[in-house]
Design brief:
Two copies of one chain form a homodimer. Chain A is an alpha/beta fold. Chain A is built from ten helices and twelve strands. Chains A and B meet through α7 of A and α7 of B. Chains A, B: Pfam families: ROK.
């Protein structure tokens, strides 16, 4: 049987998406369910099985040779389990074995959602052609993933690239993760909005206090809004520079809602990067916006499945 | 011709060491010169050539199949050049081509000194058997290197693992590198001593104001000395936790003069690591002292040469 497709699952706190994807990253079939995030683990799994059922029921399914899962973290690829923060019914949940069962025994590859998005940007997006890249999602949280030596670097448990929870301010504000001064604690959308409000910024008549509203105010010249984005940019720059100094990357790709803020973010970010990326071998680092859209998680999970298929074929 | 040996060079600001090393990491022949660090580039190169000459003049030389160089940084493995901070006569100096010439055309591998020490600890020392490790030297400066997926991760230019110059305090004191709040700026030996002196610690009758003297005072219960080591430990912990969170490592090996301080450093370091290494996948991380002695640079350069030889043989 010729298997020229892979199956992909993108599992988040809001939705569970599935797809059959070809070797060029094209989505040939898709399925989706809302995540019953507050239900028990078996109920959440049923939503995964229903999503998968729409794929296995298709005549295209016979052409699928492997299945990739990008899941909200933490994940543990070494045990095949997941414990997504926003899905309390799943703690050390054996997702890989359950999905393998529902997928008729296909080889299954599990990676964290930041790693999945990185795989997508490297395969089809802004990191294409770069052998050493950091890809980030700056949104409600701050996530990421790494490409090193031309390969996705998922790490033994599939969690590598968690740049949102490195501390760039060791005496800084407590982060929900337990540490202090994490990149996410300073640069996530909710923290950009919180800081602006704390420093006197007030929303317009629509009452919108999101980071996008702060970005609008910053574009209009509001100094408190500008300063909140500058502080976020400084934390992101310190984190990106730390990553480059540790592993050598030549590009950082930034996506997610905050990443869409444009010059309000990228202007101060590029400036701050010069302040922290000082050693000769990190000075050529560039920062660019992400290119992949909402399908990034699916396309990245498909990339991981393809890589697994290739590895299996080589053995 | 059977080549069961490799040649190794360890080039620092104080000495240039050379050796012939076998496949078990044993040094069969060694040579050494003082580094004429303040002389012009050609004079420094002559000291390298003299060191090499003692190796090439030996009957053992015919058994050497490759040569590894571990050099004070920055290095640029992609161009084969070095610009060691402490050797001003070498700026973008074409060390690889000059050494290859002096070594009769042997394949030459160039890595930074932190990467070399990491290669040695992974091959023969405290990181043996660990597929994902950070090795550090905490001394006059703070350097390091990474093993990822069982392989030395040197990065495209040979500089990966520069943990001393990641910022863990983005508003902190200016570092000579140009950034602020770098791990080295807080945790190096001279900074441990400076902080103790600034806070009122005074040396004994011998006038010794080194970090080793501060460590002695800390062991004797001097609270200012204890606090200076605690602050260094906090910065090291934040840097190590950041590294683990970014790339997934399960062991951090610490060597160098400050690394020899023992419990005065390792006690607060292990405690502080718990404060910063919070995500589930980094909680199993352990910190241990280095095992390799002063030959680490040579043994690591030899390891890099052996890896290059294996790669060449596989092609």
């Amino acid at each position: 049987m010729h298997t020229d497709l892979v199956a992909a699952l993108d599992i988040g706190g809001t939705k569970i998406a599935g797809a059959l994807v070809d070797g060029h990253g094209r989505i040939l079939l898709r399925a989706q369910r809302a995540t019953p995030a507050q239900e028990d683990g078996d109920t959440v799994m049923r939503a995964v099985e229903e999503t998968l059922g729409e794929l296995t029921g298709s005549p295209l399914w016979a052409r699928a040779g492997a299945l990739g899962i990008g899941s909200a973290g933490p994940v543990d690829a070494s045990t095949g389990t997941v414990s997504p923060v926003n899905v309390p019914g799943w703690r050390d949940y054996p997702l890989v074995s359950r999905v393998r069962e529902a997928a008729g025994g296909l080889p299954v590859e599990l990676i964290g959602d930041g790693v999945a998005i990185t795989a997508a940007e490297h395969w089809q997006g802004a990191a294409r052609g770069h052998d050493n890249a950091l890809c980030m999602v700056v949104s409600t949280g701050v996530g990421g993933g790494l490409v090193l030596n031309g390969q996705l670097h998922a790490g033994p448990t599939g969690n590598a690239g968690h740049i949102g929870h490195i501390s760039v301010d060791l005496d800084g504000d407590p982060c929900p993760c337990g540490a202090r001064g994490c990149v996410e604690r300073i640069a996530s959308g909710p923290n950009i909005a919180r800081r602006a409000l704390e420093n006197g910024w007030r929303p317009g008549p629509d009452g919108d206090t999101s980071a996008a509203a702060v970005a609008d105010a910053a574009r209009g010249g509001d100094p408190v809004a500008v300063a909140s984005f500058q502080r976020a940019a400084q934390a992101l720059a310190a984190g990106i520079a730390a990553t480059a100094t540790l592993v050598e990357i030549d590009i950082a790709v930034i996506g997610g809602g905050v990443g869409k803020a444009g010059d309000v973010l990228f202007g101060p970010l590029r400036k701050a990067l010069g302040d922290y990326a000082t050693l000769s071998f990190v000075q050529r680092l560039t920062i660019v916006p992400a290119q992949m859209g909402t399908d990034a998680g699916l396309v990245g999970a498909a990339a991981a499945a393809l890589a697994k298929q290739d590895t299996a074929a080589a053995v």
